[in-house]
Amino acid sequence: MTDKGFLFMPSYQITMKIRWHGHSCFEISDSETKIIIDPHDGKSIGIKPPTLSANIVLISHDHFDHNATRMIRGEYSCIFADPGKKKIGNIVIEGFPSYHDEEMGVLRGLNVIYKFKMDGITVCHCGDLGDIPSEEVIDALRGVDIIFVPTGETITLSISKLEAFLDIIDPKIIVPMHYKVGSLTLPLKTLDDFLERVSEEMILYVGNEIELFSDDISEFLGLWVFDR
Fold this sequence. Notes:
This protein is mainly beta. It contains 3 helices and 16 strands. It has a domain at 81-226: Ribonuclease Z/Hydroxyacylglutathione hydrolase-like (Metallo-beta-lactamase, Chain A, 4-Layer Sandwich), CATH 3.60.15.
């Protein structure tokens, strides 16, 4: 790993890049497509505003810290909290219904979990998942390569429920998001409680961006912690 937090393997061709823009906003790209998930404006949540451009934008739910499409430059296709299967360019995106709370959405509404494959790597972004989803959804998510999950607890899954969910899904790589960091003003918990439940040898601190050089990611199994 370089001092910028990249995995450096020059003998392989880069297939995918993942960059964290803070909170739950991630940029996932290959040589043809750039996907932005759950953009925020920075200012309204107390952190640095992101600089974003995309071909595809995915919004998990209609809350201000996840739906700031105005921050994204250029022309793009947007799936706005919409379950179902859609193909945009060469990317097939599946949206799965879930809830933002344990009261079947009564408190905070609905949430969409997105899954797609890019260069042979299956990615799942859980948005603000507030309860373990249905068996049908769980079956569709089992064994994904990379899963992005909220770990700040206060308005999403408790850590104990999150652990149960991850045990069922059994992903290769877990990426925590939506937690208290720096000057973030939202009432979330830090990442500490979640990391305490993970053995140190399974944690990889990847910096702001990570580059994958093949669809064989078995060398990087575990928990990836991003920094911005």
